[in-house]
Amino acid sequence: MDWTLRNKKLWKYVDCSAVRSEPTSANIARVQRFDKESEIAQATNVLAIDPLQQHQHVRDCESARDVSLKLEAAFEMKSRPRMMQLMRALINNKCAESVPMDDYATRRRRLAAQLKEAGLELKDDQLTTILIAIFGQAMIRSPQQSRTGMSVNTRLTLSKKPC
Length: 163
Fold this sequence. Notes:
Blueprint: H1 11-14, H2 28-47, H3 51-58, H4 64-75, H5 80-92, H6 101-117, H7 124-135, H8 137-141, H9 143-158
Helix pairs in contact: 2-4, 5-6, 6-9, 7-9
């Protein structure tokens, strides 16, 4: 994972090359400046991620280094948190009535391809199980919705082209 901090002076707080000294009467201004710049580095890292995921990833972090390590673990391609995040996105991906079915199928294939890149390849029967769990009883009750679900499943399983 690559990080870009616009202010290069803040990087020392992320990689811990700058160490906070104990506050004394002689160095109180320097300690306050350290705390302020460390807070700015931490906030800059937190703001780099989606606002809806900020609390999930960085709720227990106390320093810029903690934020950096947590985000690296969460967004590293083959990390378990990344796989869980993609799997949750796959399960929570719903097909709204206003969205074309092709867009929904494209999102599904893209998430499945990202999971494959992360090292978790889903089989067709697993994707079908997820689809049945999402559509639930509505697929069984209505023949129209059943055909819609089957057409999505067909598009997902027959298409080999990742998005």
